[in-house]
């Protein structure tokens, strides 16, 4: 399932306020600045830091 480009353009990391990169294979929105990957469940981004996966 892909993420709507319009939505992706408007979303940002809730911690750093930087742009996110969508990883379609992992179904995650990646914040390189925060070092976190936010899950996308059933096409809905879960933008909660406590739900994010650390990248390192």
Automatic annotation (TrEMBL):
InterPro entries found in the cross-reference section:
Trm112-like (IPR005651)
Q: Which residues form a coiled coil?
A: none
Name a single GO cellular component. cytosol
What the entry lists under Pfam families is as follows: Trm112p
Q: Where is the signal peptide?
A: none
Instruction: Give the source's domain of life in one word.
Output: Bacteria
Which family does the UniProt entry place this protein in? Belongs to the UPF0434 family.
Q: Which PANTHER family match?
A: PROTEIN PREY, MITOCHONDRIAL (PTHR33505:SF4), ZGC:162634 (PTHR33505)
Can you name this protein? Answer: UPF0434 protein CKY28_07305
Record organism: Sphingomonas lenta
């Amino acid at each position: 399932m892909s993420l709507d480009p319009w939505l992706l353009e408007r979303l940002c990391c809730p911690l750093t306020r930087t742009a996110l990169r969508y990883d379609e294979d992992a179904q995650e929105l990646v914040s390189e600045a925060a070092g976190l990957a936010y899950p996308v469940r059933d096409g809905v981004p879960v933008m909660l830091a406590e739900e994010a996966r650390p990248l390192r």
